[in-house]
Design goal:
Number of domains: 2
Order of helices and strands: HHHHHHHHHHH
Helix content: 55-70%
Distance between the termini: 62 Å
Radius of gyration: 21 Å
Number of strands: 0
Largest sheet: none
Shape: globular
Number of helices: 11
Structural class: mainly alpha
Length: 331
């Protein structure tokens, strides 16, 4: 019995260690990504970025986090307090749980599920609830409209995202993310599936509520949208959830279209976590570039783009891809 208890304790300790090895680097990446975003945008817009706190302003994110932790948490008197406090926790937790199936190298994954893509779809669908809960529980018309906008936007673009993913899945012949990466040993899918790659990146911007599709946070009419009533830790959790989702979509883009941890041009001595991290950072840089370069869409333009442009294009490319694969197999 004592030996069994020791084995159980060691098992849970190993699980806890694996979870921390995912969460701690992710939170550090989020912190430095916020600094990198402000640095990149200041360079593009020819102004000064963070340059006071720490060397070259690298500790600015930690100063901002400390400020939010020390601020007083204020809840509206008419808010549903339980749901109001639960909403940011739900959003933040789901943004972390999704990383369980992301392979950063061969065998370097917390849970190598055979249905890893479906798992990510499920988590993505649940993440809508955190935003909708925050908008409804705040009992504010601006927060409620922001929550509804975000929900409609995310649900609309998830439809196109599904058809784009199916194009990749039928080429790889598997729903396992590791198998999808290994299927790109000879050629990355960004070349034969270039239209899907472009559509996926634009859809990822809309799915994560990022510029130029950050309509829930359109300051002109919604005063920051669903999180307008949040301060201190609640706002910080929403902020962390948004940036964690951006990094997740960047990593997913690398896995589906850019060969994951595989090196370029078949140079396998580049394979590994470092190669995966460099590719992910390059895709993350495109998120920053899009924010600095493009004006915000109107909401009617956003929804028209989803249902009248992206959905027909993604469906048409899926039919074309499946038809070509069937023809090649027939030959």
């Amino acid at each position: 019995m004592i030996l069994l208890n020791k084995k159980i304790k060691m098992y849970f300790f190993s699980i806890l260690l694996q979870v921390l090895l995912i969460i701690v680097p992710l939170l550090l990446t989020v912190a430095f990504y916020t600094v990198a975003e402000r640095k990149f945008m200041s360079s593009i817009q020819r102004r000064r970025g963070p340059n006071v706190v720490g060397i070259f302003g690298l500790l600015q994110a930690f100063a901002d986090g400390l400020k939010l932790l020390l601020k007083e948490t204020i809840a509206p008197t008419s808010a549903n307090l339980g749901i109001f406090l639960l909403a940011p926790v739900v959003s933040f937790s789901l943004s972390l749980v999704a990383w369980a199936v992301i392979p950063m190298s061969y065998g370097m994954v917390f849970a190598d599920l055979n249905l890893g893509v479906l798992y990510l779809f499920a988590i993505s669908a649940l993440s809508v609830y955190g935003i909708l809960m925050s908008g409804w529980a705040s009992n504010s018309k601006y927060a409620f409209l922001g929550g509804l906008r975000s929900t409609a936007q995310m649900v609309s673009y998830e439809v196109s995202l599904g058809f784009i993913l199916v194009s990749v899945l039928i080429c790889a012949g598997s729903l396992n993310l590791t198998e999808i990466v290994l299927a790109q040993t000879s050629i990355w899918y960004c070349f034969p599936l270039l239209p899907s790659f472009i559509l996926f990146f634009i859809t990822a911007l809309a799915e994560t509520n990022r510029h130029p599709f950050d309509l829930p946070e359109a300051e002109a009419e919604l005063v920051s949208g669903y999180n307008v009533e949040y301060s201190a830790v609640g706002f910080a959790l929403f902020f962390l959830a948004e940036y964690s989702s951006m990094i997740l979509m960047s990593a997913l883009t690398v896995i589906l279209f850019l060969g994951g941890w595989l090196g370029p041009l078949g140079l396998h001595f580049f394979d590994g976590v470092l190669c995966f991290a460099i590719k992910t950072f390059l895709v993350m840089s495109l998120f920053i570039w899009a924010r600095a370069a493009f004006p915000r869409y109107r909401y009617d333009q956003l929804m028209r783009l989803s249902w009248k442009v992206f959905l027909p294009l993604s469906m048409g490319w899926l039919v074309l891809t499946s038809g070509l694969l069937l023809g090649l197999n027939a030959l």
